[in-house]
Amino acid sequence: MGEPVRIGIIGGGGWLGRAIVEAIIDAQIVAAEHLTLSYRSGQSGFLPNATWTRDNQELVDRSEVIIVSVRPQDWPAIDISAHGKLAMSVMAGIPVDQLASRLKTDRIVRTLPNAAAEVRNSYTPWIGSEGITLDDRNLVRRILAACGAADEVKSEADIDYLTGLTGSGPAFPALLAAAMMDDAIGRGMSPDMARRSVSAVLIGTGKLLEARGENPKDIVQTFLDYRGTTAAAIEAMRASGFEAAVGDGLAAALQKSVSMGQAS
Length: 264
Hints:
Layout (H helix, E strand, L loop, with lengths): L6 E4 L4 H12 L8 E4 L12 E3 L2 H7 L2 E4 L17 E4 L6 H8 L4 E4 L10 E7 L5 H14 E5 L3 H12 L3 H16 L4 H22 L3 H11 L2 H11 L2 H22 L1
């Protein structure tokens, strides 16, 4: 059995960084004592057995794999040399060539998990540089699988598009849920009942899509064919521009992802 891998996570106390930490520990990819986590303001009481530091270069020097989990706007302040080690980014918009140049390694993996990593249900597209090895790929797959489902994509353009489609993750269903709850509360339903009913609808829909494996369009069409209350609701939403609004939102996310990479 080989030596345990040592992983460092820049931004390990943040929302996504912490989710990744918990996932890879639960999957027994790494033990807490082999983790080095950096923080910017105020050390978290989370995971006391890990090594915590405010010095990102110290984190790099202690680690074999470096995961950069900071906001894209904080990326310009990262000044480290990864010395040719494997480095993974979970930042939106920052392309592989910029990561390689700034981190000083040709072993780069660009990934885009979403917030559902917290409950091990992220969908994560990823792409590697030419310098990554077969062992690197296998380790990346294990790390991302610990957070949910993952696919290696063909181009960074795919990741830029998926920034909106999957990187935004729970935000879009949550936006729909919030609108449904507001409507229910506005019609006199208690906030607790509104939350429970709407949550049950969204959770049940996800399980139904997973279990049946159908194209969602087919499920929508089934409801339309009944010509009942659901059909009336779907037609009203479509008439108000529901699908066009979704397309506009995804286009805006794609443009933001591309522009962040150009500005860095």
